[in-house]
Amino acid sequence: MATADKLLSVMKLFTMDEPEWTVEEATKRLELSSSSTYRYFNSLSALGFVEALNPGVYTLGPAIIEFDRMIRRQDQLVKTATPIMRRLVDLTDDAGSVLLCRKFRHQVMCVHSEGFVDPDKSLSYERGRPLGLFLGAASRVVLAYIPGRNLKVIYAENEKEIATSGLGATWEEFRRSLKRIRNDAIVVAYGQLDAGKVGIAAPIFAANKSIIGSITLVLNEHEVNTQMVERLSIYVQAAAQEVTLGLSAAFNDKHPGASGSE
């Protein structure tokens, strides 16, 4: 493993379940020498990526917050989508939540949200929380557009979970399920992740036409009917297409003459 990979492996130790680490604990987990682990922690600490609030016990540092602020203010996907998301919320008379999710390895992650926040129950698609690809409208609509060669890997690694999710008990059934999603260009999911909620999601594409994420409208299931879902699905599709066009325009403005497909 290259030095850079080893350094990054220290950062990946920090999770919601394990937010604090000592050098000794990290040495054992990563199977590195003590001297190497000390060196990596010192380098990360000097840059503010980790810090020791208590002697010898490290947590994520303030540099992470600095980068988070940069993403919130400068990320092109968030900048492009935010006003479109707000207009989508307005169409629900402020009764809905709109989520912006992006593909993150073999997962999706909510990076921004607008609209109604239920004080009694938070949504599973919480900002910064990675979620799987097989349940939830925001996830499934991304899954449907992942290239075939990568889909085969995903299927091989998650065959049982895919079958349990209802996407198919075989590879062919799985492929057909995703083809139906692509044909519709929309996913409507009832209570798959959050009981009593309905999610309506459409795909967002990068300038090179690859899937980058999704936009999802979430409503209380008891407040909508079939006709409303059909009407709102059109709005969600239009919003996703507008974000896609906005990303392409922003890319062309910043890189005149460049090809988004390269």
UniProtKB/TrEMBL annotation:
Superkingdom of the source species: Bacteria
Keyword DNA-binding among UniProt keywords: yes
Pfam families per the UniProt record, alphabetical: HTH_IclR, IclR_C
GO molecular function terms listed in the Swiss-Prot or TrEMBL record: DNA binding; DNA-binding transcription factor activity
Gene Ontology BP terms: negative regulation of DNA-templated transcription
Keyword DNA-binding: yes
Domain IclR-ED per the UniProt entry, residue ranges: 63-249
Xref: InterPro entries: GAF-like_dom_sf, HTH_MetabolicPath_Reg, Tscrpt_reg_IclR_C, Tscrpt_reg_IclR_N, WH-like_DNA-bd_sf, WH_DNA-bd_sf
Keyword entries, A-Z: DNA-binding, Plasmid, Transcription, Transcription regulation
Protein name: Transcriptional regulator, IclR family
